[in-house]
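STRUCTURE REQUEST FORM
Protein name: Large ribosomal subunit protein bL33
Source organism: Propioniferax innocua
Requested output: structure tokens
Priority: standard
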Amino acid sequence: MAKRSDVRPIIKLRSTAGTGFTYVTKKNKRNNPDRLTLRKFDPIVRRHVEFKETR
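Status: completed
Returned output:
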């Protein structure tokens, strides 16, 4: 059975466009201790917007 690592936790990226759309990904806490911000596609508004990490 694989165990869940504390170094690579599962995080949610929530759209800043206010649509409530989320992406789920993993990140390395040692290399990126701050909150993650990525520019990704939001299919509800049909354009690229910033997605910020929520915990």
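Reviewer notes: The CA atoms of residues 40 and 46 lie 11 Å apart. The chain has one domain: 10-54.
Form closed.
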